[in-house]
Model the fold of this input.
Amino acid sequence: MWRIVRIAVLLTILAFVALGALVDRWRTTDWDNTLWIGVFPVNADGRDTTGEYLARLDAAQFRDVEAFFAAQAHAHGVALDRPVHVELYPALDEAPPRLAPDAGLPSRVWWSLRARYFSWRVAGDRLAHVRLYVLYHDPDHTQAVPHSLGLQKGLFGIVHAYAEEPYEATNSVVVVHELMHTLGATDKYDPATLLPSFPGGYAEPEAEPRYPQRLAEVMAGRVALSPGQARMAESLDEVVVGPATAAEIGWVAQ
Ligand SMILES: [Zn+2]
Done:
């Protein structure tokens, strides 16, 4: 008897979690109302220089993200005037739990639960459909940052960025890429070589000649220069949302 009750309770909880994920998905990809993106900066290396940068950071830094979404959504036929609004919240004192790059499935599941708990605890009462934790590093002391990630289940992203003005345009490219993941977009590059996949990862797959491409597809993040060579997009001015990504995030019928 108790066994049946326990199983029933567990199934009910799982059904609510699954339903919650579905509702999240509808709500964030129907594009009927402006999506609120909460940005929560974190001083990732604990340096004073990074802290000073965070004190200077203001919402204007993310206007290119809003403008990018508006221009690209309109190009794909979305009527909504402002598809996304970025709200900059005060810096957090703690960073989200870290996911080891070589983590196996059980540790990934455990990490995802802890990360969702973190997100609920530090930002649960802030208005934001999607939460982006942006971890800033001083570029003079950090050559390479860990991989950024964005999760549709839980609607949050962890973005690694550089705490210096010259890096702001490329930070925005990473922010938009991870934001797209939270909305259901998939990567469009080869994880082994980081080269854009053809045709989905190309901004202009029909171009003649095909190389060099002029722009990057957002989920590839790189401009293909030749079949074996690509460079990072330098700003959102060089980035477009291709038809496959647009379908994944609900801008066009699948
Ligand atoms: Zn990605």
The pocket of zinc ion is lined by residues 177, 181, 187 (CB under 6 Å). The chain is about 35% helix and 20% strand. Helices lie at 2-29, 48-56, 63-75, 105-123, 168-182, 243-248. The chain has three domains: 1-30, 32-179, 185-254.
